[in-house]
Specification:
Rossmann fold; single chain; 14 helices; 11 strands; Helicase, Ruva Protein, domain 3; two-stranded antiparallel ribbon; alpha/beta; 2 domains; 5-stranded parallel sheet; about 50% helix
C-alpha cells in the first residue's frame, strides 16, 4: 500500500473518531449545562484509559455527568458514597458462604460496586486510608485481589472520584501515591448566572438524564487503539519530558520559578499521561499528530495534583495553575 493510500486511510479514521466524539458531546449537552472543558477532558481520560479526580462544591453536576456518560457510552455505572465507616470489602466485594441445592457449603465471591465500567467514587477523601488504599490496585491494575484470588475488571474501566474543597472536617487527604493514579485533576467551577438559569429550567422539566447511547465500550477500546498509533515528533516528546523535569526544584537545570515556588515535582507518570492524553486530544481536534498546544493545554490537569507549591507561592497569592503557567513559559521548545 502506497503512502498516499495510507494517509487517506488515516485521515478517514481520524474523521470517524472526531465524529464519534462530537456525537458524545451533543448527547451530554442534553443533561449537562456548560462545563465544556470538563466534558472534553473526561472524554479524553476515558479514551486514554485514565482516571479523573473532580474537585468542586456540591451540586455542580458531577454525579449527573457520570450517570449521563454511562448512558451515552452504553456502559454499566455504579456509585460508591465514601464515608469514614466504609470498609474495603464494601468497595471490592467479599467472600460469603452459601449453601447449594445439595446442602453443601461453598465459598462464593460477591462482587462489590467497583465491578462496573464507570465508577463514581463520591467524596473519596471521606474514606479512611485503609479503604482508600483498596482503590489503588483497582485503579492502576484494573483487578481486585481477595483471599489470594484475583478478579479482572471488564474493560473499559474508568474511575471518576470527587472531593469537596470547602468542607474538610472529617476527611482523610489522599496520599501522593493515590493522587498519582489519577490521570487528571479537574476543577468544576460554579456555573455562570446564565448557565444556572439553564440548569434550573432543565431540572424543572425532568431530573432524569435524557441523553441517548451513541457509542459502545467496544468502540471506546477501538478508539483507544487508534490513539496509541498517533505519532509524536521527537521535538514534542523532548519538550514534554523537559516540562515534567522542570517541575522538580532539586534539579540543577530547573527554571527559576520552580526553585522559588515548588516544594516537590511531578512523577514520571505525568510525562506518560501527557503523551497518552495528547494523542487522544489530537484525534479529537482532527489531527494525526501531537502538537505543542496539546501538551500545554493538558499540562494543567495532568500536573496540578502531582506537584506541590510551597509557602512562598502561597504568600505571593499564586495558585498551582499560576505556577504551571510560569513553568510552561520557561520550558524551551526544541
Amino acid at each position: 500500500m502506497s503512502n498516499t493510500e495510507n494517509n487517506v486511510m488515516e485521515m478517514e479514521k481520524v474523521k470517524l473518531f472526531s465524529e464519534k466524539i462530537t456525537k458524545v458531546r451533543t448527547e451530554l449537552a442534553k443533561d449537562v449545562v456548560g462545563q465544556k472543558e470538563i466534558i472534553d477532558n473526561v472524554i479524553i481520560a476515558i479514551v486514554a484509559g485514565g482516571n479523573v479526580l473532580l474537585e468542586g462544591v456540591p451540586g455542580v453536576g458531577k454525579t449527573r455527568l457520570v450517570r449521563s456518560l454511562g448512558k451515552v457510552l452504553s456502559l454499566p455505572f455504579s456509585r460508591i458514597q465514601f464515608t469514614p465507616d466504609l470498609m474495603p470489602s464494601d468497595v471490592t466485594g467479599t467472600n460469603i458462604i452459601e449453601k447449594d441445592d445439595a446442602g453443601k457449603l461453598n465459598t462464593v465471591f460477591r462482587r462489590g460496586p467497583i465491578f462496573a465500567n464507570l465508577v463514581l467514587a463520591d467524596e473519596i477523601n471521606r474514606a479512611t486510608p485503609k479503604t482508600q488504599s483498596a482503590m489503588l490496585e483497582v485503579m492502576q491494575e484494573h483487578k481486585v485481589t481477595v483471599a489470594n484470588k484475583t478478579y479482572k475488571i471488564e474493560e473499559p474501566f474508568f474511575v471518576l472520584a470527587t472531593e469537596n474543597p470547602i468542607e474538610q472536617d472529617g476527611t482523610y487527604p489522599l496520599p501522593e501515591a493515590q493522587m498519582d493514579r489519577f490521570m487528571f485533576k479537574l476543577i468544576v467551577n460554579f456555573p455562570s448566572v446564565a448557565e444556572l438559569a439553564d440548569i434550573v429550567k432543565m431540572t424543572q422539566i425532568t431530573m432524569a438524564e435524557t441523553a441517548n447511547a451513541v457509542i459502545t465500550g467496544e468502540e471506546i477500546l477501538q478508539m483507544r487503539a487508534l490513539a496509541s498509533t498517533v505519532p509524536v515528533a521527537e521535538e514534542v516528546l523532548a519538550y514534554t519530558v523537559n516540562l515534567v523535569s522542570n517541575t522538580h526544584p532539586e534539579l540543577a537545570n530547573s527554571p527559576a520559578s520552580t526553585k522559588k515556588y515548588v516544594k516537590y515535582g511531578a512523577s514520571p507518570r505525568a510525562a506518560q499521561g501527557l503523551i497518552t492524553a495528547a494523542k487522544v486530544r489530537a484525534l479529537m481536534c482532527g489531527r494525526y499528530n501531537v502538537s505543542y498546544e496539546d501538551i500545554n493545554v493538558l499540562a494543567y490537569p495532568i500536573l496540578r495534583h502531582r506537584m506541590k507549591i510551597n509557602y512562598t507561592a502561597i504568600n505571593d497569592k499564586l495558585a498551582i495553575d499560576d505556577v504551571i503557567s510560569m513553568i510552561i513559559k520557561e520550558t524551551k521548545k526544541a
